[in-house]
Amino acid sequence: xxxxxxxxxxxxxxxxxxxxxxxxxxxxxxxxxxxxxxxxxxxxxxxxxxxxxxxxxxxxxxxxxxxxxxxxxxxxxxxxxxxxxxx
Length: 87
Known about the structure:
This protein has 87 residues and is an alpha/beta fold. Helices cover 28% and strands 26% of the residues. It contains two helices and three strands. Strands 2-1-3 form a three-stranded parallel β-sheet, with helices on both faces. The termini are far apart.
């Protein structure tokens, strides 16, 4: 990194709908994305067992609170297409 430049601090948010699913792949992809851009991952927020339709997601709520406190400059999520769920 060049002298005088500050590192971009970001957060990662991952979520799975059931407790038996893993967020490892999401986190790995997002960490790689950050690494490729020389960003520092400040924190990973994860919700296990929460539907995307759920309004109550504790980790997402905490992420949004921390965003307002400017604990980092940005955050990333992975989006998975759910078109195949339609019948």
